[in-house]
Amino acid sequence: MEYQVGDKVVYPGQGITQIVSITEEDLGGMKMVCYNLRLLATESKVVVPVANADKVGLRTLTDTSVVSEAMDRLRSNEENGATDWKDRYRANLERIKTGQLGEIVDVILCLANVAARKTLSFRERKMFDHARQMLSYEVAEVEGRTAEEVELEVENVLDKLAEEIE
Question: Are 69 and 102 in contact (CB under 8 A)?
Answer without folding.
Answer: yes
